[in-house]
Amino acid sequence: MNKPAGMPAPLIRLADYQPPAWSVSDVDLEFDLAIERSEVRARLVLQAGPDPQAPLRFNGEGLELLEILLDGEPLPAGRYRHEHELLTIEGVRHGQVLETRVALAPAANTALEGLYLSGRRETGFLLTQCEAEGFRHITFFPDRPDVQARYTVTLRADRERFPVLLAGGNPAGHGELENGRHWARFVDPYPRPSYLFALVAGRLERISQDYRTADGRDVALHIWAEADVIDRCDYAMDALVRSMRWDEQVYGRNYDLDVFHVVATHDFNMGAMENKGLNIFNAKYLLADPDSSTDEEYLHVEAVVAHEYFHNWSGNRVTCRDWFQLSLKEGFTVFRDQSFSADMNSASLKRIQDVSTLRRAQFSEDAGPLSHPVRPAQYREINNFYTATVYEKGAELVRMLAGRVGPQAFRQGTDLYFERNDGRAATIEDFVGALGEASGIDLSPYLAWYGQAGTPRLQARGNYDPANGRYVLELAQSTAPTPDQPHKKALPIPVRLSLFNADGQAQRLRLADSEQDLGTETVLELTDQRQRFEFTGLSQPPIPSLLRGFSAPVVLDADYAPDQLAILLRHDPDGFNRWEAGQQLALMAYDRLYRGEDASAALQAWTEALADLFAQPDLDPGLLAELLSPPSETELAERQVDIDPEHIHHLRHQLNDAIAARIGLPPLLARYQALAAASTSALDASSQLRRRLKQVLLGLLSRLDAKVAIPLAQAQYATAPAMTDRLAALTVLLNTGAAEAGPALADYRRRYADNALAMDKWFAVQARVPGAAALARIEALAADPAFSLKNPNRVMSLLGIFARANASGFHRADGKGYAFVSHQLQVLDALNPQVAARLATALNGWRRLESGRREAAHAMLRELAARPQLSRNLAEIVNRILE
Ligand code: 0A1
Ligand code: ZN
């Protein structure tokens, strides 16, 4: 299944888009399934494109062609060619039926794309993954999303070995065959692209629930998993039902088949997949129980279940014309799942977490050579574009559009979009156009956001004139050049703002030349490079609270004084901007510490405000936990060139130390103990938030006085009622280097030896431990019999965490971290190119490292690029990083 590159894969460009020369209206698939060798018969009704004389060229990779017929007649060898992963036939006619029979080897498929085996040969089950271009590994087909066809799928297999047979669509019969075999048929009434095809076959258990849609359809919901984990699916079912209701209520979208299947697998390259009627999930995002899942994992399950379900409309009923439009379904669906989670939990905490993720994953992606627009203009390997930019920044763009048109017009716009494009393969213009039409607002300037890479910087400078009570806010934007885009345009940037006085009161807003009272919050739209906005009627110099709710995905550069930010941190009623003020203060302190300057003013303003907030008994514990957490090392590193990750790691410690010292040991301890005494495994939101605060407090205590914190962590580990507390305790034991960490790790391993997802966390928690000893620990773990390069979750838990979330451990000055990962990458690439490519993105920032590390990383990348056997996936990433 691996695709040796040989020569570089061709560059595919958005500008070259052409509708398909030959399309397919009806697909009839028959599978004879077995672990080692399966056979697929496909009957395709051909549809001519604009030129009926054009040759038919269908994709097909790794297929053993057994038979080929046209209108029932075998095609002679001279009538077709099968080379370079294409099947070419000249002289076919509209309406003819092309029939092929091919053989596949599922058990040998380690790339986990196409038809493959999950688990062991003796006990595992078969499943498929087709997005983006996996269907061509199953049969010959025009494997592109603008070919939409009606599918009938028949599965045949040994009943004993494969008692459960599932495919997307409605069930359309099943029965017995000779020799202990059986069959099942499925028909999907909705035309759909090939990437949404799926089947599952094997020994699986299920939980089920009946559901009636708002428009009156009775749907059977089934969640399937292997017997040992089926009792961990209840939360996913609960989340599914809530997602379905929410989409009915908020977007007016109903489910449209009689059955909805969800299946969990431990062997999956990504999070989950929205196949029509048959969602397939990485078990990590479906299974949950208090004993082995953290609170954070519960939130992920809720979000991913919703995400995949929401794709049924934003993705399946309306799909993408081509893969350049990927964010049409992904950005919109992430926005939808974010809104759902915000409605289910605390909206401001959700916003804080989403913005943190964006900054950590997307801003850093955008700051290196892998930077690309939300709608990329070109790619060599589409699987490399399932990125934070397409997903998370894409969601921010939808959020901006939604904010611009307002909630009512947004709903009218999405209704129009779904209605007009139902059953079609659409573009981003179709989406933005529908919102524009429904709202009567020209949104076309926002299209520039989709085509322009890089994170804009928004500069804000304020000037107050006490003589006339006027405040002039000057806003200016700039975006640094990115690969392929040396010149950047001005983008429309919505700046939601309030103005506060020194007592922390929001002022009424009135713009000069206008009589209108805008209330205490308004949105300014910066459309040019630079604009001035003048507010009148202010009796005191105002403190601007800018980009409230993070109204645009930009980096803000405002000339705040520490005291002004401290006022926002104490008083801003908007939870997000209150947190943001604290982050800005932390960054101000960090910048000074980094430059070796006096940081005391910023540190003092920040920690004093935090200590006061800490003392407020009624402050939401979840918000407090976030307030007490400085920006991540990745975010801090964004601010520098010549990065020394170890230095940054130490500076971040100093920020934590400053918070801990200011609050002081007795209050921290008292609060921790109060929370610990009330520990339960309850999953309600408030219990979760208190656990989160407890975890942050234990971390601060460990900075302040390890001798106090270690016994607390040890006790917390021993008595933890649920995984969140257990893992938090283990983290502190490991990070403090406590001798007690060893027995705790051994205990954890004994307890969870048979639980793959819990063992992933055992690897991850160790992979995250910073510092010089990290590499030796990782090497030992990579040699552990429980480690396997064949399982993507295990790979990401150890190597992914090490390379992407342990900067001080990975970016060693001696370059040995790079050498180790390079070796692993080469072995991994031969097994699973998608996962290898994802791991390699950890080196995106190499150019901004200090010179010694830069040289070492550069040498490693050049050496890797020179390897002859690299997959197309890894080759593209390494070459783009090197460009
Ligand atoms: N569409 C899925 C993500 C996905 C993409 C590619 C995959 O295999 C290469 C698998 C899943 C989603 O957004 O959930
Ligand atoms: Zn998605």
UniProtKB/TrEMBL annotation:
<keyword id="KW-0862">Zinc</keyword>
<dbReference type="InterPro" id="IPR035414">
    <property type="entry name" value="Peptidase_M1_pepN_Ig-like"/>
</dbReference>
<dbReference type="InterPro" id="IPR045357">
    <property type="entry name" value="Aminopeptidase_N-like_N"/>
</dbReference>
<dbReference type="Pfam" id="PF17432">
    <property type="entry name" value="DUF3458_C"/>
</dbReference>
<feature type="domain" description="Peptidase M1 alanyl aminopeptidase C-terminal">
    <location>
        <begin position="563"/>
        <end position="883"/>
    </location>
</feature>
<dbReference type="GO" id="GO:0016285">
    <property type="term" value="F:alanyl aminopeptidase activity"/>
</dbReference>
<protein>
    <recommendedName>
        <fullName>Aminopeptidase N</fullName>
        <ecNumber>3.4.11.2</ecNumber>
    </recommendedName>
</protein>
<dbReference type="GO" id="GO:0008237">
    <property type="term" value="F:metallopeptidase activity"/>
</dbReference>
<dbReference type="GO" id="GO:0008270">
    <property type="term" value="F:zinc ion binding"/>
</dbReference>
<dbReference type="InterPro" id="IPR027268">
    <property type="entry name" value="Peptidase_M4/M1_CTD_sf"/>
</dbReference>
<dbReference type="InterPro" id="IPR042097">
    <property type="entry name" value="Aminopeptidase_N-like_N_sf"/>
</dbReference>
<dbReference type="Pfam" id="PF01433">
    <property type="entry name" value="Peptidase_M1"/>
</dbReference>
<dbReference type="InterPro" id="IPR014782">
    <property type="entry name" value="Peptidase_M1_dom"/>
</dbReference>
<keyword id="KW-0645">Protease</keyword>
<dbReference type="Pfam" id="PF17900">
    <property type="entry name" value="Peptidase_M1_N"/>
</dbReference>
<comment type="similarity">
    <text>Belongs to the peptidase M1 family.</text>
</comment>
<dbReference type="InterPro" id="IPR037144">
    <property type="entry name" value="Peptidase_M1_pepN_C_sf"/>
</dbReference>
<feature type="domain" description="Aminopeptidase N-like N-terminal">
    <location>
        <begin position="109"/>
        <end position="196"/>
    </location>
</feature>
<dbReference type="InterPro" id="IPR012779">
    <property type="entry name" value="Peptidase_M1_pepN"/>
</dbReference>
<dbReference type="InterPro" id="IPR024601">
    <property type="entry name" value="Peptidase_M1_pepN_C"/>
</dbReference>
<dbReference type="InterPro" id="IPR038438">
    <property type="entry name" value="PepN_Ig-like_sf"/>
</dbReference>
<dbReference type="GO" id="GO:0006508">
    <property type="term" value="P:proteolysis"/>
</dbReference>
<feature type="domain" description="Peptidase M1 membrane alanine aminopeptidase">
    <location>
        <begin position="235"/>
        <end position="444"/>
    </location>
</feature>
<keyword id="KW-0031">Aminopeptidase</keyword>
<keyword id="KW-0482">Metalloprotease</keyword>
<feature type="domain" description="Peptidase M1 alanyl aminopeptidase Ig-like fold">
    <location>
        <begin position="454"/>
        <end position="558"/>
    </location>
</feature>
<keyword id="KW-0479">Metal-binding</keyword>
<dbReference type="Pfam" id="PF11940">
    <property type="entry name" value="DUF3458"/>
</dbReference>
<dbReference type="InterPro" id="IPR001930">
    <property type="entry name" value="Peptidase_M1"/>
</dbReference>
<keyword id="KW-0378">Hydrolase</keyword>
